[in-house]
Amino acid sequence: MTETYRNLIDGNWADGGDLVANINPSDHSDIIGHYSAASVDDVEQAIAAARRAVPVWVATGLEQRKAALDFIGDELIARCEEIGHVIAREEGKTIAEGKGEAFRSGQFFQYYAAECLRQIGEQAASVRPGVDVEVTREPVGVVGVITPWNFPVAVAAWKIAPALAFGNCVVLKPSETVPASAAILADIIHRSGVPAGVFNMVIGKGRDIGNALAGAPDIDAITFTGSVGVGRQIAQNAIQNMARIQLEMGSKNALVVLNDADMDLAVQCAIGGAFFGTGQKCTASSRLVVEQGVHDEFVERMIAAADALVVGHALDEATQIGPVVTERQLQQNLDYLELGKNEGAELATGGDLLKLATKGNFMRPAIFTGTSNAMRINREEIFGPITSIIKVADYDEALAVSNDTDFGLTSGIMTNSLNRVRHFKRHSQSGCVMVNLPTAGTDYHVPFGGRKASSYGPREQGTYAKDFYTIVKTTYIGG
Ligand code: NAD
Asked: Is the Cβ atom of 409 under 6 angstroms away from ligand 1?
């Protein structure tokens, strides 16, 4: 018998309807478990439970709130090896990446545990003599959290932790592709001492229950991470009820490599940024914009480095690049490889499917060369181990190409010139700028988010998260 992941509603584990298999992308014969699909009725019950719990959680002492968040954070960290293994088995990232994700998720909860005790308002003198002004923050209420599969625990953690810390109640709708990771997180939160209904989880497909959550009249705020198309739909649903919206979506991040860059570091950052996590990161380097003086050397070294990467079963310690998450995503990658070739790009290496000991979604990391920024492979998010090299004449063209995109999550520059760094930092139209670092990899105590179609609404993470998870109240006291 495999494990069944159930829904958590009002402090109880509840069966849904159909049982849906959770398949290991490294080994299609490995059924990890089944999730019990929640219905729209389950979603409504979860929202009602969260609504009832709002006054309870608001009245819960700050130290008790902090203790619950500390419990969750400590357990995630203590069990990071085991949880990392589950993440690797169901999502396909390597064990090291899975462990790192579980550990980082624990750090989010620990960080926001401390934030519980830092909720201090402001006082101002009024323009009217004899009047005092106070500015305080209150919880928003019931927050719907909708998460993707690529960081199954971390994205949920960076939303749930601040939501709870600032006094909100939560209904989580994790990606149905990664129910085992979600079930572990929900179980830890369930045992953390939060009152019944403060945290609820419903598992199921977006079109079945995600829509219902986003469009529910009794939801106060929706925070979503996923694709742009779904983000747009969620926003349309949520705005009918004037719910707050926070959307973190797709990307087409550029890493600029200038003639004066440290070439070892540039190749290392480009390989890590483009391919680690099987290229399935919103911060992945999908466009490598290279100045002509180092272009040929960079291409040669990138091909050699990509070819040396070990693609394999995610649970094999030697693996550097795990499988693509689903067969559907793999097919999408193959379609983009075809498209790129038809558009005139050269597939310099990779893209071939690997037959290994187990049947899985294994694809060699692919590099396109001879590409232009106008090609669809450089304009649309691919979300796989595929990157494109774009040759440019000089820094000005590199900056222009980097900014010429519908997205704006992260951007990076590899250079030893302080002037270029300062100029790029000022003029790059992205939410996060990386200097001599991969475009992927961010800290948790500072804001995270993008511009244009990559993000909508207030920033996530750090203290900035409070702008989404709290409502400001201004009080005037006279007499
Ligand atoms: P997705 O948009 O397909 O799904 C995300 C979540 O939305 C899932 O839980 C899904 O079930 C749900 N959903 C789907 N349709 C829905 C609907 N109509 N109404 C409500 N919910 C619905 O994305 P994905 O394939 O899970 O993840 C990959 C995407 O996530 C990529 O575009 C990637 O860039 C993005 N992402 C962005 C960030 C960021 O911070 N910007 C981080 C990680 C992933």
From this structure: yes
Ligand 1 neighbour 457 (Cβ under 6 A): no
348 C-alpha vs ligand 1 centroid, how far in Å? 30
Give the domain CATH number at 84: 3.40.605.10
User: Residue 103: CB within 6 Å of ligand 1?
Assistant: no
Answer whether residue 440 is part of any domain: no
Amino acid at 398: A
Q: Tell me, yes or no, whether 315 lies in a domain.
A: yes
Among protein residues, the one whose CA lies closest to atom 38 of ligand 1: 282
Per-residue confidence at 1, pLDDT binned at 50, 70, 90? Answer: low
Q: Are residues 220 and 101 part of one domain?
A: yes
- Burial (CB < 10 A; 0-12, 13-18, 19+), residue 213, is buried
Res 323: pLDDT: 98
Asked, for residue 444, whether it belongs to a domain, the answer is no
- Ligand 1 centroid – CA 55 distance (Å): 31
CA distance 81 to 154: 15
Res 24 pLDDT > 70: yes
Closest CA to 169 of 107, 220, 114: 220
Cβ–ligand 1 distance for 222 under 6 Å, the answer no
321-333 confidence digits (pLDDT tens): 999 999 999 999 9
In a domain, 37, yes or no: yes
- For CA atoms 441, 447, 452, 456, the dihedral sign is positive
pLDDT at residue number 202: 98
Residue 128 and residue 84 share a domain: yes
Per the structure, how many domains does the chain have?
2
CA dist 423 → 84, 259, 262 (Å):
39, 16, 19
Please compute the mean of the pLDDT values over residues 404-412 and round it to a whole number.
Answer: 98
Q: What pLDDT shows up at residue 13?
A: 98
Q: For residues 336 and 382, is the Cβ–Cβ distance under 8 A?
A: yes
Give residue 397's domain range: 253-435
Region 119-142 average pLDDT = 96
Residue 68 and residue 175 in one domain: yes
Query: Binning pLDDT at 50, 70 and 90, where does residue 2 land?
Result: confident
- Tell me the average pLDDT across 439-457: 97
